[in-house]
């Protein structure tokens, strides 16, 4: 039994992994992991490194091996297109590997709607084509609010894809439009057989993309991590 951690810039997500089965933990703390006996911890971290050390202590798991995953030039037949492959965010690399584990020989878009929204393209011969990094739903709003004199709203999670008639609604709904628009622009530029959607804002975005071949999967990064665990 393994503990898998995805440490993003907003939150840490945790999964219990055993015999090919993934169980997402809704909370990560001493109590929530108390019933489990882990062999090792596998970590994907795009946040600050100190966060990993902190977690080792707060979870009382300093006695276990902690394996930190890194983006590679190639693995499991998947080829990373970055000129400096280790610079590709490890969450992106693992989501690509996770999508590849579900669907090979298809052209894929892999969208991770987290703090930032990332889009990566993987072609049917497992070649990563590159991608985009776009401010996420909250950052879109903060960018406008922090850099203008008269947009005095607060970031808000209750977006709808409708027109706003006050500042608050214009900012929050505009942020949703920006992300839907980015995914649609990606699709127009380079359409694929499937668009995998993962990350905190993926269920919301999926509602507005039902005409595209979207497949929601909260586990993509964890599926990628699991490929590194020899069974
Ligand atoms: N419980 C939650 N805490 C924080 N963000 C949440 C939560 N539930 C949904 N979200 C949404 O998820 C987004 C962050 O997604 P997530 O995949 O956790 O990001 P990251 O991987 O960058 O930490 C936020 O923009 C927010 O809108
Ligand atoms: C783009 C990211 C900030 C996304 O992180 P997240 O929103 O999931 O917290 C992360 O993948 C990262 O730090 N990447 C390194 C730069 C790159 O991928 O080119
Ligand atoms: K992420």
Automatic annotation (TrEMBL):
Taxonomic superkingdom: Bacteria
Chief location: cytoplasm
SUPFAM superfamilies, alphabetized: Actin-like ATPase domain (SSF53067)
Gene: coaX
Catalysed reactions, as listed in the record: (R)-pantothenate + ATP = (R)-4'-phosphopantothenate + ADP + H(+)
Residues holding ATP: 6-13, 115
Classification via InterPro entries: ATPase_NBD, Type_III_PanK
Keyword annotations from UniProtKB, A to Z: ATP-binding, Coenzyme A biosynthesis, Cytoplasm, Kinase, Metal-binding, Nucleotide-binding, Potassium, Transferase
Signal peptide boundaries: none
Function per UniProt: Catalyzes the phosphorylation of pantothenate (Pan), the first step in CoA biosynthesis.
Species annotation: Alishewanella maricola
Biological pathway: Cofactor biosynthesis; coenzyme A biosynthesis; CoA from (R)-pantothenate: step 1/5
Phylogenetic lineage: Bacteria, Pseudomonadati, Pseudomonadota, Gammaproteobacteria, Alteromonadales
Molecular function per GO: pantothenate kinase activity
Name this protein carries in UniProt: Type III pantothenate kinase
Active site per the UniProt annotation: 91 (proton acceptor)
Annotated positions binding substrate: 82, 89-92, 167
Keyword Phosphoprotein: no
Short name of one Pfam family: Pan_kinase
């Amino acid at each position: 039994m393994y503990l898998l951690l995805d440490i993003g810039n907003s939150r840490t997500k945790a999964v219990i992994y055993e015999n090919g089965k993934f169980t997402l933990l809704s909370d990560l703390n001493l109590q929530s992991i108390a019933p489990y006996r882990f062999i090792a911890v596998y970590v994907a971290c795009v946040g600050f490194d100190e966060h990993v050390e902190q977690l080792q202590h707060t979870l009382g798991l300093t006695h276990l091996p902690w394996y930190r995953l890194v983006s590679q030039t190639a693995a499991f037949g998947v080829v990373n297109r970055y000129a400096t492959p280790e610079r590709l965010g490890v969450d992106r690399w693992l989501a690509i590997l996770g999508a590849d584990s579900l669907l090979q020989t298809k052209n894929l878009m892999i969208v991770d709607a987290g703090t930032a929204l990332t889009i990566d393209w993987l072609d049917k011969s497992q070649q990563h084509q590159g991608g985009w990094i776009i401010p996420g739903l909250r950052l879109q709003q903060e960018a406008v609010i922090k850099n203008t004199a008269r947009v005095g709203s607060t970031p808000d999670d209750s977006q709808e894809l409708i027109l706003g008639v006050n500042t608050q609604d214009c900012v929050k709904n505009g942020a949703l439009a920006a992300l839907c628009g980015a995914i649609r622009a990606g699709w127009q530029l380079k359409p694929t057989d499937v668009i995998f959607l993962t990350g905190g804002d993926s269920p919301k975005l999926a509602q507005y993309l039902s005409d595209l071949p979207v497949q929601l999967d909260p586990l993509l990064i964890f599926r990628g991590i699991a490929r590194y665990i020899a069974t």
